[in-house]
Write a structure and sequence with these properties.
Elements (H helix, E strand, L loop, with lengths): L2 H36 L6 E6 L6 E5 L4 E4 L6 E2 L4 E2 L4 E2 H10 L12 E5 L4 E7 L4 H10 L5 E7 L5 H11 L4 H11 L11 H12 L7 E4 L4 E3 L4 H12 L1
Parallel strand pairs: 8-9
Antiparallel strand pairs: 1-2, 2-3, 3-4, 5-6, 7-9, 8-10, 10-11
């Protein structure tokens, strides 16, 4: 191939690439404009990207919620995008990725640490003492061994949750106080100490949009909202260890 032909091809490919970029930027602007104007109450659109499905675009909101739309923003779809060929829930995978938390950024000093067995596996949990789902979850968690648990008191269900969290944090043995309260309905006696850690937990949770309890964070950063069973906890820990 002569140098002149190579140069022409290079120029043509560069032009096509630039055209595609400009077109994509224009399309993104159109989607943002139309949806924001037509649905003004929608949270801020943080990102617009092509989805794996031709003609469908993913919209990520400031709340990390995922929606889908067409190239003009004329239609808005809420729900899961399923890859039937590979049997994958693409929306679920994307939300899990967006919700991931770097385990190394967790303020471990503000957690109640519980070591079971060899403690090799690690799991962080945000819980409210008045959360019924948390109490059910604690019964399943009690069956898991060889794990280090970092419990972050996260009182989001009202003033009484705050008071109970403070009593647990200030107890002589916070881990036992928590277990007794959640699995035996034995509330710890009121005590006073420095409870700034609970405030920091609340601030951390809000920053990372932890909106419900229990919320689990595995060592690989995977976030799981809600109470899960013992087998599901074991699978989460096994997957995080790979």
């Amino acid at each position: 191939m002569s140098s002149s032909i190579r140069q022409w091809l290079t120029t043509a490919l560069l032009a096509l690439s630039m055209t595609g970029t400009v077109w994509a930027q224009g399309q993104e602007a159109t989607i943002r404009k139309n949806i924001s104007e037509r649905i003004p109450q929608i949270p801020k659109i943080e990102e617009v990207t092509r989805s794996p499905m031709p003609g469908l675009y993913e919209i990520r909101l400031s709340t990390n919620e995922i929606y889908y739309t067409d190239a003009e923003g004329n239609f808005l779809i809420q729900g899961s995008l399923i890859d039937t060929k590979n049997r994958r829930n693409l929306t679920e995978e994307r939300e899990a990725k967006l919700g991931a938390v770097d385990f190394n950024t967790l303020p471990i000093k503000d957690a109640i640490t519980m070591v079971r067995g060899n403690g090799k596996r690690k799991l962080a949990i945000f819980e409210d003492p008045n959360c019924g789902y948390c109490k059910r979850f604690e019964r399943d968690l009690a069956k898991v061994d060889n794990v280090t648990i970092y419990l972050f008191l996260y009182p989001v269900l009202g003033p009484n949750s705050v008071e109970k969290s403070k009593a647990v944090w200030c107890a002589k043995d916070p881990a036992t106080a928590w277990s007794d309260m959640m699995t035996r309905d034995q509330a710890p006696a009121a005590a006073t100490c420095n409870t700034a850690a609970i405030d920091r937990n609340t601030e951390f949770g809000r920053k990372h949009k932890i909106t419900g309890t229990p919320t689990l964070i595995a060592q690989d950063g995977t976030r799981v909202p809600g109470a899960i069973s013992t087998p599901q906890i074991e699978k989460l820990l096994a997957d995080a260890s790979k």
